[in-house]
């Protein structure tokens, strides 16, 4: 089987079997790309995950693009990403159809109401882990003294601007990057 | 004519919004979902807040990348299958472009200190956006005045952060609680009906 088809079917499986988001997909991608097909070494794969985490976008799409590009150029990118997306497309389209058909039913509403608090908690938990990574990039091992003040100030400033002036999210994220980098360079901390 | 124009405008908005969100979010599915909530619920007013939370629960429970799953559902809601395609394209193009470029010279990218620094400080901004969204969401859970929902929220948060219980397990548990709640409501309304008859 050609590499292109192999890649497509590998990422189709990643898309189909990774339930629960990006981190659930990592072992699946590793299994397909490193162990089953030997398309990458483990060291290359580790680099890939580092970069996929550093850059914006879903980890599995990032990995699909990276693997596809390195092994088969642009056609590789397209096929890997497509493989990753196709299962989502069919499964979620079906679920969306049923959700919008039945969501006004009283019983369905009651069940969904019990799910919503959990979703809020999970979003809060994701926010907390990003905040910890931002404030303590070297881990929490040194305790509170390891805190990065610049990031702390940016977090509080950004939260204030969001609450008070309802600023747009992209502006806040991009602004944090620019202001934070400038602050580090000006303070000579880099 | 006017209708097709309006439809084209919705598709373009969908594409633009998902493209920008995807280009600037890092850190997993729930991050992009909180940005989608801010954009589609608070800024554009396209969706109800409850609806966005339901979409999140469905996206999380289905296989595949959460941002893609959420895009499929939101796109379908706004403009049917063309909407789904516009939203998928918007969500997947930025990582495809960014990672294609990076894969060509990833050694330099990984070791560049200014890039690493910018990505690191942006996390503080991302965290602020998520906290902003969470404050609004949590307020509304408290406003339901049902102790059950507040307890589910606090319990799920503690279980996830302290005990490391996975998101899928938590959603399944809450699904079970919801089903039990329905069963109890049905039973108590039947009882009330019988009492009225008696």
Describe this structure in words.
The complex is a heterodimer of chains A (190) and B (198). Chain A is mainly alpha-helical. Helix content of chain A is 81%, strand content 0%. Chain A has helices at residues 3-17, 22-36, 42-54, 59-102, 106-135, 149-165, 169-187. In chain A, helix 6 (149-165) packs antiparallel against helix 7. With 198 residues, chain B is an all-alpha fold. Chain B has a domain at 2-105. Chain B has helices spanning 2-24, 29-43, 49-61, 66-104, 106-111, 113-143, 147-161, 167-197. The longest helix of chain B is centred in the middle third of the chain and has 39 residues, at 66-104. Chain B is globular and about 80 Å long. The mean pLDDT of chain B is 89. The chains are: A mainly alpha (190), B mainly alpha (198).
What brief labels describe this structure?
heterodimer; A: 190 residues; mainly alpha; 2 domains; 0% strand; B: 198 residues; 87% helix; globular
Summary of the model, kept short:
Chain A has helices at 3-17, 22-36, 42-54, 59-102, 106-135, 149-165, 169-187.
Sketch the topology of chain B as an H/E string, one letter per element: HHHHHHHH
Distance between the termini of chain B: 62 Å
Report the end-to-end length of chain A measured between terminal Cα atoms: 49 Å
The structural domain count of chain A equals: 2
Give the amount of beta strand of chain A, in percent: under 5%
Q: C-alpha Rg of chain B, in Å?
A: 21 Å
Q: What's the average pLDDT of chain B?
A: 89
Instruction: Determine Rg of chain A (CA atoms, Å).
Output: 21 Å
Tally of strands of chain B: 0
What's the mean pLDDT score of chain A? 86
Kindly name the structural category of chain A. mainly alpha
Furnish the topology, listing elements before pairings:
The complex is a heterodimer of chains A (190) and B (198).
Chain A: H1 3-17, H2 22-36, H3 42-54, H4 59-102, H5 106-135, H6 149-165, H7 169-187
Helix pairs in contact in A: 1-2, 1-4, 2-4, 3-4, 6-7
Chain B: H1 2-24, H2 29-43, H3 49-61, H4 66-104, H5 106-111, H6 113-143, H7 147-161, H8 167-197
Helix pairs in contact in B: 1-2, 1-4, 2-3, 2-6, 3-4
């Amino acid at each position: 089987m050609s590499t292109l088809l192999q890649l497509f079917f590998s990422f189709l499986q990643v898309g189909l079997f990774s339930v629960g988001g990006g981190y659930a997909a990592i072992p699946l991608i590793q299994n397909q790309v490193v162990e089953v097909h030997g398309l990458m070494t483990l060291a290359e794969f580790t680099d890939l995950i580092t970069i996929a985490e550093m850059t914006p976008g879903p980890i599995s799409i990032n990995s699909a693009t990276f693997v596809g590009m390195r092994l088969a150029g642009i056609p590789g990118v397209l096929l890997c990403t497509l493989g990753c997306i196709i299962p989502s497309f069919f499964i979620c389209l079906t679920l969306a159809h049923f959700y919008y058909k039945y969501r006004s039913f009283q019983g369905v509403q009651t069940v969904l109401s019990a799910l919503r608090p959990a979703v809020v908690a999970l979003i809060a938990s994701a926010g907390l882990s990003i905040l910890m990574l931002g404030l303590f990039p070297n881990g929490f091992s040194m305790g509170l003294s390891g805190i990065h003040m610049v990031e702390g100030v940016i977090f509080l400033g950004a939260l204030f601007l969001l609450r008070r002036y309802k600023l747009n999210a992209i502006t806040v994220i991009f602004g944090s990057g620019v202001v934070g980098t400038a602050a580090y360079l000006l303070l000579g901390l880099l | 004519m006017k209708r097709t124009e309006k439809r084209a405008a919705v598709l373009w908005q969908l594409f633009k919004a998902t493209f920008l969100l995807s280009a600037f979010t890092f850190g997993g599915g729930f991050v992009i979902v909180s940005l989608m909530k801010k954009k589609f619920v608070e800024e554009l007013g396209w969706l109800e807040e409850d609806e966005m939370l339901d979409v999140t629960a469905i996206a999380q429970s289905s296989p595949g990348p959460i941002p893609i799953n959420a895009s499929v559902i939101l796109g379908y809601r706004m403009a049917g299958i063309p909407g789904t395609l516009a939203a998928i394209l918007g969500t997947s193009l930025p990582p495809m472009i960014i990672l294609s470029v990076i894969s060509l010279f990833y050694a330099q990218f990984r070791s560049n200190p200014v890039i690493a620094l910018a990505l690191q400080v942006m996390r503080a901004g991302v965290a602020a956006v998520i906290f902003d969204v969470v404050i609004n969401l949590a307020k509304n859970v408290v406003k339901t005045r049902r102790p059950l929902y507040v307890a589910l929220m606090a319990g799920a948060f503690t279980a996830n952060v302290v005990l490391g219980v996975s998101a899928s397990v938590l959603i399944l548990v809450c699904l079970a609680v919801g089903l039990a709640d329905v069963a109890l409501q049905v039973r108590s309304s039947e009882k009330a009906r019988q009492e009225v008859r008696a």
